[in-house]
Structures are given as C-alpha cells and as structure tokens.
Request: fold
Amino acid sequence: MVESIPTLVLVLIFSFLGSVASLVGGLFLLYKEKWTQKASGYLVSFAAGVLLSAAFFDLLPEALELAGKAEEVFFFTLSGMVVFFLVERFLLRLHHHERFHDLPPVSSLVIVGDSLHNFIDGIIIATTFLVSTPLGIVSSLAIVSHEIPQEVGDFGILLHGGMKRKKVLLVNLAAALMTVVGAVLALFFASKIRLMMLPLLSFAAGNFIYIAASDLIPEIHHGLGKQKSWLQTLLFLVGIVFIWLMVNLLG
Reply:
C-alpha cells in the first residue's frame, strides 16, 4: 500500500516528520530537564544501534548492488566518514575561536552546524526514497533516532548559553525545517541524483557509521556508571535488531 503513494508525497511526509521528531527531545528538555537528560542517555544507545544497523544491513547492501566493484562502495563510504570528520574538526576549530574572543559559547556554531546536518539528512531521505520506499523508510527511522538525543544536546547548549526559551524553540524549528529543504532540492534535481545513487548511498552509510562510532558510542561509554549500563547495552542491541527486522519485513 505504501508503495502506491507517490515518491514526492512520501519524501515530504518523512522529511517533515523527521523535522518535527527532532524537536521532541528539545521540547521535553524545556519543561522536564532532569527527566529528559536522563532519558537522553538511553536514546543515544538505541540510536547508535539503529545507525550502524541501517548502514550495514540496508545502505551498503543497496550500494553494493549498484556497484561494479565493491571497492567503489568502500571508497565513497570512507569518503563520507572523512568528510564528516573534517567538517567536525572545522566546527570545533570555530568553537575554539569563539571562546578565544569570549563570545557566547557555541550558540551560532550549534545553529549553523545543526542546520547543515539537517539539510544533509533531507538529501539522504530523498535519495533513499528514490531508490526504493523500504530503503527510504528505514533511513528516515535511522535519522529520526539520532536526531532526538542530538536536539536535546543542542537545546541544552543554547539554554545554558543564555538564550531565551522561546528563541531556542524558534531557532531549532528553523534548523529542523532544513531537512525538508534538503529533501525538496534533492527531488528537484532527481534526474542528476539518480546518476549519483552509488556514491550518495555509500556516503550516507559513511555518515551513519561516523556519527555512531565517533559521537554516540563514546557518549555511551562516557555515561557508564551514571546510568544502568546493562540497559544501555540492551537498547544498543535492540536498535540493531529493530532495523534488521524492518529491512527484512519491508524488503
């Protein structure tokens, strides 16, 4: 039944849902800070499993089907990881520069970085739906899973930086809607996007692996002892199994 829905409609729905879902954690933080901070650690564990599972069970197999040689897939996957590493290094350098001049800590940096990240997420959502509806759904779920804990962190940084609650909400809403902008632009250039499916899918897989391995998993280890480690481990495994089941059921 889902397959009969036009791709444009599906992309708009899931990119918008991704935008809205990314604000859920932040909204809870505005009103129930202690509870949200505690829950965020568990969400990070689940998100790490989801991202790794989506990359290895869905994105990479799809890319390998399109590839003439496996080396092409691994080249673009590694490229995706390297690009996000360099982007993160650049953002950290800007962060250091801001502190050097005693400007409000990271506020503008968080907004720019979040907007860029959401824009790329929108492109990934549109690209995967252009390949197949099941792939688009799984990728969208993977993106939503890590956006919620990420937004909790972003909201927290902006609030502690002195920004008013209403402004924090409006700024993050604008950043979240960049997911829709990225998706719409990707659809607008769909003919060119289709020619780049292999590198885009591999690049997206590299993105997911990098976020899980460099940001989320270290966060899980850092929180060890502060929360129930067995539950974090279980949620990590649940995230992996959840996507594996989705891939097999939708496929």
